[in-house]
Specification:
511 residues; alpha/beta; Rossmann fold; 6-stranded parallel beta sheet; 19 helices; globular; binds iron/sulfur cluster
Length: 511
């Protein structure tokens, strides 16, 4: 009987690390296990048809689905169709979205089995039981967490096609010792490292096969500095050996922990080689203590300032609107502090109620009202009305299009001026009032809207507004046309820094 591992990724470029872990740990079942990834947006019936093409004549099929907040709606539809047309197919669910609150989910009602938590050893064990009998009696199976050295690493399962065209997710550790109540990792209580030498040997082999873009999914990369230094040195060695063919690495870091040894290492990375995602979430100490987030704000601010001024690391800093106790005024204050520190991107998130997270303990006291549909975004709370939350959602969307995109690098400081949050909120309200849209606004139209706002709402002369906006387009054009002709082929070649560097970061570098 064939075992099929599948999921729906948000984009083709996102290769599922979770499925590859399962495949790597199938042992004697590996020969009969296949992996097939789909992308959100595909028709359920087409997906079911492809899944059933793995069923051998006269046999059943075990299908393991990786279920996440971004695909639970679609996978529920797929499972419903699958059970209608092929009820004999055995459906096993796993992933964070089905690991908690298992009693009230339609997808769990439809499935045969569910594995909560880690699936690396429990999924193959469950498949063995299904195949050899006796039939497992329980529907919900708590995933067993084996010692880290018993989990086989999956990186050899990235195909050459994956290496060429997709983001390679890697992890040197799992879990997080912190307890921020909005986050699923709050349930981990600690972090568990993989053997660092074995992990780096796998990275070496990926590198030798041509991998140049590594995205670390470790929740707190800089927690164990000794390990962080080893990993960074791995990339520095690669950069030194082949500066014309650079690697790019992305890490999630905690902001208030950047010892000197780590700074020395970070300083050595050239432009376009290093990206940090830094969670600030809130600068408000009352909110931080309410949600059990331990963060030294002064240290965090100093470190972000150091990174923006003393390193070439590209910084994405996360803030969350809608946390209990956060008013619009206190959020604006944190946002303005962050803008002043000068990170390249501010990821403006809206609070989501992830299944299993302890944030719900504040529901009554702070009147937290979440959308019942995934991704369970907050709609209103005691301090922010639904109408204002809608304004924040639009702000986040336009901020991504105008600020984070890097397409308005010269215009943005003029828009933000001396009160970034307040001014951008004015622009955001104005764009929405004039377009009724937050999606599918073409870049040309967006540029025209910003130019009109600068004139009508800020009194900027037309010629100055047009010149300002044009300077951004000229910047992009310069970047796009910045490659040199290859002498041997006559083809335009990207500059070395841009080859592994993600597009948005390239735009920020070019500005
Ligand atoms: S938000 Fe970050 S630091 Fe806090 S629990 Fe989650 S992963 Fe850990």
């Amino acid at each position: 009987m064939t075992i099929l591992l599948t999921t729906l990724n948000a984009r083709y470029a996102h290769a599922s690390l979770g499925l590859r872990y399962l495949l790597a740990n199938m042992d004697e079942l590996a020969a009969q296990t296949q992996l097939h990834e789909f992308v959100i947006g595909a028709r359920s019936t087409d997906i079911v048809e492809k899944i059933l093409s793995y069923q051998l004549p006269g046999e059943s099929l075990i299908v393991g689905f990786g279920v996440y907040i971004w695909n639970v709606t679609e996978i529920t539809q797929v499972v419903a169709v699958l059970k209608r047309v092929a009820p004999e197919v055995v459906i096993v669910l796993g992933g964070p979205e089905v690991s908690h609150e298992t009693g009230d989910q339609e997808i769990i009602r439809l499935a045969d089995y569910v594995i909560t938590g880690w699936g690396d050893v429990t999924f193959p064990a469950l498949c063995r039981q299904i195949l050899q009998g006796p039939k497992p009696l329980m529907k919900i199976h708590a995933g067993q967490q084996p010692p880290m050295n018993e989990i086989r690493l999956p990186y050899h399962l990235y195909t050459d096609q994956d290496i060429r065209h997709r983001t390679l997710y890697v992890e040197a550790s799992r879990g997080c010792p912190f307890k921020c109540e909005f986050c699923l990792s709050a349930l981990d209580k600690t972090a568990w490292p993989f053997d660092i030498d074995q992990f780096l040997a796998e990275m070496e082999s990926l590198y030798q096969r041509g991998a140049r873009l590594f995205k670390f999914v470790d929740r707190t990369f800089n927690l164990n500095v000794k390990t962080s230094l080893k990993i960074m040195q791995f990339f520095l060695d690669k950069l030194a050996a082949a500066p014309h063919d650079p690697v790019f690495a992305h890490f999630e870091v905690v902001p208030d922990h950047l010892p000197d040894a780590l700074k020395d290492s970070i300083r050595q990375f050239p432009e376009g080689a290093l990206q940090f995602e830094i969670g600030i979430q809130s600068f408000n100490p009352d909110v931080q203590s309410l949600i059990s987030r331990k963060q030294n704000n002064d240290k965090a601010a100093d470190n972000i300032r150091w990174l923006t001024t003393q390193s070439h690391a590209h910084l994405h800093v996360d803030l969350i609107a809608g946390l209990p106790g956060e008013t619009i005024a206190s959020f604006a204050d944190g946002f303005n502090q962050l803008v002043a520190l000068g990170p390249h991107e501010i990821q403006f998130g809206i609070l989501k109620r992830l299944r299993g997270t302890p944030i719900i303990r504040h529901t009554e006291a702070y009147a937290l009202a979440f959308d019942p549909q995934p991704p369970y975004t907050i709609l209103a709370n005691r301090d922010i009305s639904f109408a204002d939350m809608q304004r924040l959602v639009r702000f986040a969307r336009y901020w991504d299009m105008i600020a984070n995109s890097g397409r308005f690098a010269h215009t943005l400081p003029v828009i933000l001026h001396d009160a970034p949050f307040e001014n951008f909120m004015e622009l955001s309200d104005w764009i929405y009032a004039n377009t009724d849209a937050t999606h599918r606004i073409a870049l040309d139209r967006l540029a025209g809207l910003v130019a009109t706002w600068l004139q009508e709402q800020r009194g900027m002369p037309q010629a100055s507004a047009v010149m300002l906006i044009s300077s951004d387009y000229a910047g992009n054009a310069k970047h796009i046309q910045g490659g040199e002709k290859s002498r041997s082929t006559g083809q335009t070649q990207e500059p070395a820094v841009a080859r592994a560097t993600p597009q948005r970061q390239s735009r920020h570098l070019a500005a």
